[in-house]
Amino acid sequence: MASTPAPTGSFKALASGTYHACAIRDSGELACWGSNSGGQLNAPGGRFVRVTAGDKHSCAIRETGARVCWGTI
Fold it and tell me: What CA–CA distance (Å, rounded) separates 24 from 27?
């Protein structure tokens, strides 16, 4: 299975799951890479302050305080 390589740039937070990782860029936007076997790379748009990752999913908190998860939970 193909995977997406890690992005370049500066990040302020990082979370890693079993076969993927997601990070918050300095701009607040999410970047995810690795395996997408459960849709875990399909990060939503917007600005975020926290991110966490599980087996085939990730969750993050928006600047507004709203919580969002994606992938197979």
Answer: 8
Q: How far apart are CA 11 and CA 17, in angstroms?
A: 17
Among 48, 50, 47, 17, smallest CA distance to 34 is for: 17
Q: In whole angstroms, give the CA distance from residue 10 to residue 55.
A: 25
55: Cα separation from own chain's centroid: 12
Q: pLDDT tens digits, residue range 5-59?
A: 999 999 999 999 999 999 999 999 999 999 999 999 999 999 999 999 999 999 9
Give the dihedral sign, CA 46/67/26/4: negative
45 CB neighbour count, 10 Å cutoff: 7
How far does CA 63 lie from the centroid of its chain?
A: 15
Q: How much is the pTM?
A: 0.92
